[in-house]
Design goal:
Blueprint: E1 2-7, H1 14-28, E2 32-39, E3 54-65, E4 68-73, H2 82-99, E5 103-107, H3 117-129, E6 135-140, H4 150-163, E7 166-169, E8 192-194, E9 215-218, H5 222-238, E10 245-249, H6 254-261, E11 269-273, H7 278-284, E12 287-290, H8 294-303, E13 307-309, H9 319-327, E14 333-335, H10 343-353, H11 368-384
Parallel strand pairs: 1-2, 1-5, 2-3, 5-6, 6-7, 7-8, 9-10, 9-12, 10-11, 12-13, 13-14
Antiparallel strand pairs: 3-4
């Protein structure tokens, strides 16, 4: 069987990471998988599926102008023009025609990525016109940015009813139901298929002690992470808490890393590049501080580490705030809004969670990739019976 996943990440890489995790799960079941990525290349997320049955195709890349998802930039940072969008549409529909998948999955669309509606609509129209139209599914995370206008809900419902056979919701409805962030209509609800959360397998057991009992801070690169890193470094310098702080800064932010190191004594603050063993460090930490994206939040929940979430709120972004507020209902989790982010407030938030372990998630809610494969195979079987 053949699967085509289409994804464009515009700010972080969470959407691409989730799409590639799905690709690996299907490839491990001997599916032929093709992933079409329309965001900037992310070599550290290259697919590595069992048997090598997945291929990553790169469209001419786009990125958002910060949190402004209506303003899209080309690879060189200039505004994307009509020629770039036309080239993307042509490559996307060409791949569909060449690959003829049994299943087509669009990540986030039609619930989001409205700025790319023309290319997704072209893809979906062509898929529907094929002699054997693929089973077509949307793939969404636990929380969506609520529509800014009522007509957005109607537009989404129309596309779902015209083009889609279902919606894979990568969440557990007992933890975060989709309707907590998106106004589902009666016509949408029967299309939902909850898969559980898409998380990587737990890190292999080791006897490492690196990071034991520290406060671990990871917050992304550039301006997205800088406010958290600076507040953490100042908090470390103040000695308001006895733990040592470890800040994991993006590899391209060497200047920021140097500035942070100068803000506190080395015995209280360690600044280093993001590490591949981040999840192992997380399991040894006394507490963690960071943003509240899908992957970060799930890493903290599965590790059971006390957490202070500082959701990203630039522009009209509300996804992380909604997730942080929902999760902070649980013991061991606190939310600190960026407007309130000071060294003193950060220390106070950490004191409220230190020593309080997060209740573990039900293991059945953590098998999102395997459950996605099961759902799709069952839908295909039902379709052909």
């Amino acid at each position: 069987m053949k699967l085509l996943i289409v994804v464009t990440h515009l700010l972080g890489t969470g959407h691409l990471s989730r799409a590639l995790a799905l690709a690996e799960a299907f490839a491990a079941r001997d599916w032929r998988v093709d992933v079409v990525s329309g965001g900037r290349p992310a070599p550290h997320l290259a697919p590595n599926p069992t048997g090598g049955n997945a291929t990553l195709h790169q469209l001419p890349p786009l990125a958002s102008d910060g949190a402004d998802f209506a303003t899209l930039l080309a690879a060189d940072g200039s505004p994307a023009d009509a020629g770039l969008f036309a080239a993307r549409r042509a490559m996307l529909t060409g791949l569909l025609d060449a690959l003829r998948p049994d299943v087509l999955v669009t990540e986030l669309f039609p619930f989001g990525r409205r700025a790319l509606a023309a290319e997704f609509d072209a893809l979906l129209e062509q898929a529907r016109a094929l002699p054997r139209p693929p089973l077509t599914l949307a793939s969404v995370r636990d929380i969506l940015a609520p529509p800014s206008k009522p007509k957005r809900v109607a537009e989404t419902e129309d596309r779902l009813l015209r083009f889609y056979d279902g919606v894979l919701v990568h969440s557990d409805p007992a933890v975060v139901p989709l309707e907590d962030s998106w106004p589902l209509t009666p016509a949408m609800k029967p299309l939902l298929r909850y898969t559980g959360f898409v998380v990587p397998p737990p890190p292999a057991g080791d006897n490492g002690t690196d990071g034991q009992g520290e406060i671990l801070v990871t917050a992304g690169g550039g301006p997205v992470g800088r406010p958290i890193f600076e507040a953490a470094a100042l908090c470390a310098a103040s000695a308001a808490l006895p733990q040592r702080w470890r800040l994991l800064v993006a590899k391209g932010d060497a200047a920021l890393a140097d500035r942070l190191r100068a803000m506190a004594p080395a015995g209280r603050l360690l600044v280093e590049p993001v590490r591949p063993d981040f999840r192992a460090l997380l399991g040894r930490a006394a507490a963690t501080v960071g943003r509240c994206g899908y992957n970060t939040a799930l890493d903290c929940l599965t590790a059971g580490v006390p957490s202070v979430f500082c959701p990203f709120e630039d522009g009209k972004e509300v996804e992380q705030t909604i997730r942080a507020v929902l999760l902070s209902r649980q013991p061991g989790i606190a939310t600190l809004r960026e407007a309130d982010l000071t060294p003193d407030n950060l220390a106070q938030a950490l004191r409220s969670v230190l020593g309080v372990r997060i209740p573990p998630l039900d293991p059945s809610s953590l098998g999102g990739t395997a459950r996605s494969v099961e759902i799709v195979e069952a839908m295909l079987a039902e379709r052909t019976s």
